[in-house]
Amino acid sequence: MDLSLKDRRAIVTGGSKGIGLAVAHEFVGEGVDVAVCARHADEVEAAAARLRRSGRTVHAAVADVTDPEQVSAFVEGAAAALGGIDILVNNAGGARPGSFASLTDEDWQRDLDVKLFSQIRCTRAALPYLRASGAPRVINVNAVYAKYPDPAFFATTVNRAACLNFNKALAQELGPEGVLVNSVNIGFVATPQWSNIRERRAPELTEEEFFARLAAQEVPLGRFGRVEEVSGLVAFLASDRASYITGAVIDVAGGMGKYV
Ligand SMILES: NC(=O)c1ccc[n+]([C@@H]2O[C@H](COP(=O)([O-])OP(=O)(O)OC[C@H]3O[C@@H](n4cnc5c(N)ncnc54)[C@H](OP(=O)(O)O)[C@@H]3O)[C@@H](O)[C@H]2O)c1
């Protein structure tokens, strides 16, 4: 399938590793110029060096998406470096496991900031550039837990549900302007954040054993997903082949989530 993405310009928040880096790789492979951000400078630089091997323009910056000023500076810098923005992938985030009893107000606020408010602020900052694009796209990376509550990930469950409402309402508001907004809901995909969760929850297990145990409980396909199994869908949603899809929520989760 020809995605015709060549020479488009994309921002991927949290593009230094995991799903975000895979999406950035998919984009440069399709001839897209990309901008990535994350908080750890060494990982941002390492990712940028790998992405630049494609020959595409790569803008990389250290930015925390929970800080409004850093979001503005990153988006402005990206637009200047790439000559505009056609695609925004709101991917930065992380799990904050915890039951209702264990989460403090500070935990809730931090989770809301990195999930919902990062999507709000990055979209607001990118919108003037998206409006000037011939094929503007916002793709939000969310979680199956938004629709499939799990008290072990209490804050994720609640705050991702808000993100899905943001996704749909934004699609409705921006539809008349031709800005397409969609969500990709992740189940269990093997990334560095899961390595951290295993270290905290089950240090006695190998990563393989830990993933296999979780997948056996929750995932009909019986395994964790790979980042490449997410990035292809994101590239498709960014492309002209997805020109009549907006407000959609698509699971990449191996069937995880008991809902219709
Ligand atoms: N993997 C899964 O199974 C799964 C499931 C459900 C949802 N998700 C969602 O998918 C997205 C990607 O997750 P992942 O698994 O690829 O995680 P990951 O491997 O931990 O990567 C997360 C990326 O986001 C960046 N990031 C985190 N907090 C940030 C902040 N405040 N400002 C800027 N960048 C930030 C990280 O870099 P720094 O740490 O250097 O900032 C990194 O680049 C997240 O939103 C996550 O919640 C993933």
Description:
The chain has 8 helices and 7 strands, in the order E-H-E-H-E-H-E-H-E-H-E-H-H-H-E. It is α/β, with parallel strands linked by helices. The protein has 2 domains: 9-189 and 226-252, Rossmann fold (3-Layer(aba) Sandwich); 190-224, no CATH class. It has a 7-stranded parallel sheet with strand order 3-2-1-4-5-6-7, with helices on both faces. Strand 2 (33-38), helix 2 and strand 3 (58-62) form a beta-alpha-beta unit. The longest helix is centred in the middle third of the chain and has 27 residues, at 105-131. The model has no long low-confidence stretch (mean pLDDT 97). Bound molecules: NADP nicotinamide-adenine-dinucleotide phosphate. The site of NADP nicotinamide-adenine-dinucleotide phosphate (NAP) has 30 residues, from helix 1, strand 2, strand 5 and helix 6.
Q: What is the rounded Rg? A: 17 Å
**What is the chains' assembly state?**
single chain
Total number of β-strand segments?
7
Cofactors and ligands present?
Answer: NADP nicotinamide-adenine-dinucleotide phosphate
**Which class best fits the helix and strand makeup?**
alpha/beta
Integer count of domains? 2
- CATH uppermost class of the largest domain: Alpha Beta
Mean pLDDT: 97
Tally of helical segments = 8
Strand order of the largest sheet: 3-2-1-4-5-6-7
The proportion of strand residues reads 5-15%
What is the ordering of alpha helices and beta strands?
EHEHEHEHEHEHHHE
Largest sheet: 7 strands, parallel
CATH structural fold name of the largest domain: Rossmann fold
